[in-house]
Amino acid sequence: MAWPRSLSAPAPRARLQLGAEARRRAGIVLRLLAGVGGGYAVAALFTMALSIGLPMPRAEAVLTATMASFAVYAAAIVWAFAVRGALRAWAGMAATAAVLALVLLLLEGHLP
């Protein structure tokens, strides 16, 4: 006699769905961390590089760079969720931060 379906062990497919759901949630958390943390780093490096590179008085350059960084930060967060995977989001943030750090090194000669 077979046990009723409700009393039997969960089907293997149900276990696979739970694993897929956990991977999906982990991907969302990783993208969120890449967007918020990596986006902050990219926006900060962008602000530093732009404030040094703009040919205007120092106070105006810093204010302009700071205002522009809000758009960069928002774009970084959106981009983290627009790419295909969380690894690409992290790699893109790291590559952008590396390029901005090199620009900052060239403009100033050292990182602050």
Describe this structure in words.
This protein has 112 residues and is mainly α. It has three helices and no strands. It has helices at residues 12-53, 58-82, 86-108. It has one domain. α2 packs antiparallel against α3. Helices cover 80% and strands 0% of the residues. InterPro entries: MFS_dom. It comes from Pseudoroseomonas ludipueritiae. The chain crosses the membrane at residues 32-55, 61-82, 89-107. This is DUF3649 domain-containing protein. Keywords: Membrane, Transmembrane, Transmembrane helix.
Q: How much of the polypeptide forms β-strand, as a percent range?
A: under 5%
Summarize model confidence as the mean pLDDT: 87
User: For the CA atoms, what is the radius of gyration?
Assistant: 22 Å
Q: Structurally, how many domains make up the residues?
A: 1
Low-confidence stretches: none
The level of helicity is over 70%
Which structural category do the helix and sheet elements fall into? mainly alpha
| Distance N to C terminus | 75 Å
* Overall form: elongated
Largest sheet: none
Number of helices: 3
Strand elements, count:
0
- The topology string of helices and strands comes to HHH
Organism: Pseudoroseomonas ludipueritiae
Protein name: DUF3649 domain-containing protein
Domain Major facilitator superfamily (MFS) profile: 1-112
Transmembrane segments: 32-55, 61-82, 89-107
